[in-house]
Amino acid sequence: MHVAFVHRRGFGQFAALAEHLATSGHDVSLICETVDRRLPSVRVILHRAEPGPRAHSRMARHLGIPDHHVRIGHRVAETFDAMVRHGEQPDIVIGHIGWGSMMFVKDILPKVPAIGYCEFFYKAEGADVGFAPDDNPDAETRKRLRLRNVAQLLSLEAIDGGISPTRWQKSLYPVSARNRIAVCHEGVDTEIFRPDRNASLRLPDGRLLKAGDPPIITFVARDLEPYRGFPQALEAAAKVIRQNPDALFVFVGGNGVSYGTPPPGGGSWKDALLASHDIPPDRILFPGAISHDLLRKLYQISTAHIYLTYPFVLSWSVIEAMSCGALIIGSDTPPVQEIIRSGTNGLLVPFFDTDALADTILRVLQKPEDFLPLRIAARKTIENRFRLVDCLSRQKSLINSVVKAA
Fold first, then answer.
1. Which end of the chain, N or C, is less packed with Cβ atoms under 10 Å?
2. Phi, psi of 383 (to 5 degrees)
3. What does pTM read for this prediction?
4. Residues 6 or more apart in contact with residue 292 via CB below 8 angstroms
5. Helix (H) or strand (E) holding 29
6. Cα-based distances in Å from 8 to 149, 375, 403
């Protein structure tokens, strides 16, 4: 079977599935604008990159992003058209619907079944927008968000099935589409991401970190920004260190902005916020983005792992940390509530309550051994619901059912 994946930025959520299908003997292709990695036996087909959203004097307000998505959709359609002309028509197409890549697939391949990855449907209430106390979306914001869903709505009308990584993310989509969207996370390799209390991590300055020596509180995000609760985590760190100067905080992430907006005046949120906190430099580390192997070791030696997020897409990092048996101190927001029951397999605090976050960290630092059952339960949660081999099996079952129904 020839399986064609479509994702604007490389393999993304499809990496494990694409590699598994390729090693199982299937013909696998990836159609993308840029590629994040290369996988053995998977052919990468790059389509022409489109410049970002553009303004035009005769273009209606807020049509910049929908226009951009349409242009991306045309590039993907042209790629499939060329594949068909060269006798390389796929048997199924699986693609992310968020950037317009899947808009015109059915117009080129009307008889080829298509599955859409349904990651996040934008809303003016009930999700990320309007979550912060000072965020009150006006009419223009609401119109912009509605138009941002144009590509997804057109894709949903055409695809034969969808997949969302969590129940909450699926719940954001229109009621009329939900019965065609299955819930299945990409999964985590529990053989690689596993507990190891003997793990150690060598820092660039030569220091060797081990579990509990010193007590290490970890925080991981693609970028250090408000959407992932960096301001609250940093403020809580300052409060904890004042009472427990032995604690070491490690903040992993870049200085850009993946979601939301930059700080007033530009620059990075890290630099903007550090200036307002008196934190001893030897008690807080910013290693930037680090390798997956180092991330795994960091999770393994963590005394407590902070995971805060707006009501937004669930990060892979929290799944991997739980798989390593890390104690999660998370925000009581819907994405986190779906995987963590406070006091059972982790601890939850209000997103904006830095006193509650600091108090919870201090409680863990005082008697970390008391929280071993939560660590064990966190690992068990991943084994039961997010184990890679099981997630791959569910994804393959969805593929087979869609192909048979076509």
1. C
2. -60, -35
3. 0.95
4. none
5. strand 27-32
6. 16, 36, 24
